[in-house]
Amino acid sequence: MMEKAHVHFENNSKSELKLKVNQAHIYKRSALFGATLLAFLVPLASALYAVFFGEGPHLAYLFILLIFGYLGIHLLKAYLWSSYGEEDMTFSPEGCSYIANFKHFSGTEKRLKYPYYINYDVVWENDNQLEAVLSIYNDEGHIRSNLKLPIDEMEKLYVNLCDEMPWLKDPEVKADVDGAFAVQFS
Asked: Whole-angstrom Cα distance, residue 158 to residue 134?
């Protein structure tokens, strides 16, 4: 699920980008929190009740606790993402790195070596307003943001990234199949 975001450059550097999730409505976050709490507490309470007041421990209780624990971890990540989620991207002449942070959790770090291309993909038209996601790729892999921005903000971000990087000397601009442009850093 793609969330809307706002852009923040770290330490006034155009090569360290942070996309932060706009917090979801309180109703969505409280529903996610309630579902997370239920996923952890109901199986645990029922297993403890059955052990102390029922017929004793069974192997099925362990499986139920593992399944609901797995579900609870994913619900907790969804809650933290909708409240505190951010994507950290660092661009350098050596390569690009990307990591998604959930406050107490973080995703795996993805890296692309030089040369890499920066592009944006139009993903949604909402109330006659186009929205886009940032995309970074090379021959080895592809990094695509999970956060979307309005197309005018994405164009400003794209221009900032392509124009303000200190190692950007002579960009080689080429058109993609769909007409979008990509910049290779040289």
From this structure: 8
In angstroms, the CA 84 to CA 81 distance is: 5
- Average pLDDT of span 82-93: 83
Reply yes or no on whether the pLDDT at 94 is more than 60.
yes
Phi, psi of 157 (to 5 degrees): -60, -45
Other C-beta atoms closer than 10 Å to the C-beta of 97 total 16
Number of C-beta neighbours around residue 133 at 10 A? 20
Rounded to the nearest 10 degrees, the angle between the axes of helix 59-84 and helix 26-53 is 160
Amino acid 9: pLDDT: 58
The answer, yes or no, to whether residue 59 has pLDDT greater than 60, is yes
Tell me how far apart the alpha carbons of residues 127 and 106 are, in angstroms, rounded to a whole number: 33
- Rounded to whole angstroms, how far apart are CA atoms 30 and 4? 19
The pTM of the full predicted model, rounded to 2 decimals, is 0.70
- Do residues 173 and 182 lie in contact, with contact meaning Cβ atoms separated by under 8 Å? yes
